[in-house]
Amino acid sequence: MEAVIFNGPFKIDVERRPKPTLLEPTDAIVKVTVAGICGSELHMYRGHQKTATGHIMGHEFVGYVEELGSSVTNFKVGQKVVCTFSPVCLSCFFCKNGYTNRCPAGTAPFGTQGLAGGQADYVRVPYAAGTLQPAPETVPEELLIMMSDIFPTGYYGAIRAIEYFVPTPSSELNGDSEQHTALSLKMQTLDKAIFVCLGCGPVGLCAILTARSKGVRTIYVVDSVDDRLEQAAKLGGIPLKLGRDDIPSIIKEATGGRGADAVIEVVGNTTAMRSAFDLLRPAGVLSSLGFHQGDLPFTALECYSKNLNINLGRAPVRTVYDEALEVVVANKDKLSEMITHRLPLSQAAHGYDIFEKQQARKVILIPGQ
Amino acid sequence: MEAVIFNGPFKIDVERRPKPTLLEPTDAIVKVTVAGICGSELHMYRGHQKTATGHIMGHEFVGYVEELGSSVTNFKVGQKVVCTFSPVCLSCFFCKNGYTNRCPAGTAPFGTQGLAGGQADYVRVPYAAGTLQPAPETVPEELLIMMSDIFPTGYYGAIRAIEYFVPTPSSELNGDSEQHTALSLKMQTLDKAIFVCLGCGPVGLCAILTARSKGVRTIYVVDSVDDRLEQAAKLGGIPLKLGRDDIPSIIKEATGGRGADAVIEVVGNTTAMRSAFDLLRPAGVLSSLGFHQGDLPFTALECYSKNLNINLGRAPVRTVYDEALEVVVANKDKLSEMITHRLPLSQAAHGYDIFEKQQARKVILIPGQ
């Protein structure tokens, strides 16, 4: 079969590889119809995240079940499926309690040295009963591909911030009556909260859409790329451009000098994390989705003095899958411009190149073309 | 009047000072009947927290209203009151939204260079309408003095951890039917959660009691002082002694190798914060009450990889006052051994000395004796 291979930083090739086979009774083989290139793969592509070479890339994919291990009983051969970005065993402590992001079976996501990815004609899916999700035939593949990672991830980042506020009355929400409970401490109501989203790449856009659909009225959105800011504005964000706008002053002015009530950080570097901290008001919430490899750019005294609330790390895609999919389906039209490039798998190198150069919003690869 | 003066590290004297007078229409003058020495004053006493000298100490006090400014209408002269450790204006953004810990009027707590404290015959209370709380005559002063700071603080630290779990069914709770809502993400139930409290000083004991009364079944409690561990055990904690017990191994064994589901950190130094991080399982919650002045002893990558949830900083005493008082009243008997030393105000220096040497659990000073 054809597969997209990581041969070192900025070196992506399509090579022939053996079609995968079932190794465990819990496995499935999926015939891939669409595979996405994810922003988090750029850490490896750019050489920031060191790794050996030679593995198949890709942790976002949709396809059909080709073959099932004997113990996988909740799917049928031929069924359309979405795969979550890392395996989910469903039987460990973490899976049973909703922390599917910490399932030990998922330590190596798809598209790494530990597990061959889905940018290929076929892919082996471990723990298929939990790792795969049924894909409604009525939802276009361009939307479904976001459900492997970026939409549930953005959804989770937004929800973790939203939970610190008293919900907006559901009568004021647009067709989405689901309410998330606030902390028991009496807090600000969501409809008056000023949010900031740092980073308007694909995950950031998903977070912005979620925030708006859950009752956040005001969300400033920050990026350096005009196209991303335009998209974010269409989703209801107020665009602020790095290098053009005096962002700290604008946020201070919008909040009576206090700072933002919540910051969603989707960039993953030290500068962004420090900006997030600085833009946040005392006792605000910082929901960090970015993949951070450096130090934390604030001291314990700064955190104490600010009464910081912060959560970091990978999203539990499987846990939030159903509620995230509802938001996707309810906002089909708004998400239709997210995928700008559909390329044959054979043009994967070009796809990585334009995505890395921020010339594409989101690139999907089509095997068999 | 007599007042306890900070004259430098380890130098506490009782000196004569002018009786305070009303300066603003929002002030009250309180005649102090009991003043506590708080663990957080030891930062100054030991010289770790640098400050000028000459001010009156004390941010825990109970007394009677002696005089009221013209705009304070919710108290009467002669009424018994508890004072919260820092002023609360009730009219700013932070107060209105429940973040009384971040009220700008409270930037200088009582007993600092910015605001004369309550270890004195009389004290001026700014923003008395919000800073004072009515004190039920039926509750002993030994319990009320804990309501200025340590009980609401310990309560808040416990609640911030408890909120990450699905509540224990109220039928299984002992006389306390109040339930706190969990985060919307499906999480572990509280009754199965393994908690750790690092630090069993007065605030730690209040956190442990709160945790137990709210449905936490298992809480390991860590300290180096035998007397504190004995008290913590009486409140339902499982004592682990620093230097004697292999704490990481015991917690790992109790949690199937994962680590604790929640850690409440009440020590306030870098070693304790690192221990808290290491003892915590992935996707657990670290509720930090300690006053931290150093760096954060973990990297961004460690936080990302652990899916850390952490909150830090001062407690919103006013916001949680009523619910914390309910727990105090319901647990009068268990708290009766908390105060070990009642000294005349004139013996304040001795009180600081034995408290600093951990020879006293909690010291209260009685003016006029």
TrEMBL record, chains A, B:
Its cofactor is Zn(2+). The keyword Transmembrane does not apply. SUPFAM superfamilies: GroES-like (SSF50129), NAD(P)-binding Rossmann-fold domains (SSF51735). InterPro entries: ADH-like_C (IPR013149), ADH-like_N (IPR013154), ADH_Zn_CS (IPR002328), GroES-like_sf (IPR011032), NAD(P)-bd_dom_sf (IPR036291). Keywords: Metal-binding, Oxidoreductase, Zinc. The keyword Metal-binding applies. PROSITE patterns: ADH_ZINC. Residues 25-128 form the Alcohol dehydrogenase-like N-terminal domain. Residues 202-311 form the Alcohol dehydrogenase-like C-terminal domain. Belongs to the zinc-containing alcohol dehydrogenase family. PANTHER family: DEHYDROGENASE, ZINC-CONTAINING, PUTATIVE (AFU_ORTHOLOGUE AFUA_2G02810)-RELATED, ZINC-TYPE ALCOHOL DEHYDROGENASE-LIKE. This is Enoyl reductase (ER) domain-containing protein. It comes from Exophiala sideris. The lineage of its organism: Eukaryota, Fungi, Dikarya, Ascomycota, Pezizomycotina.
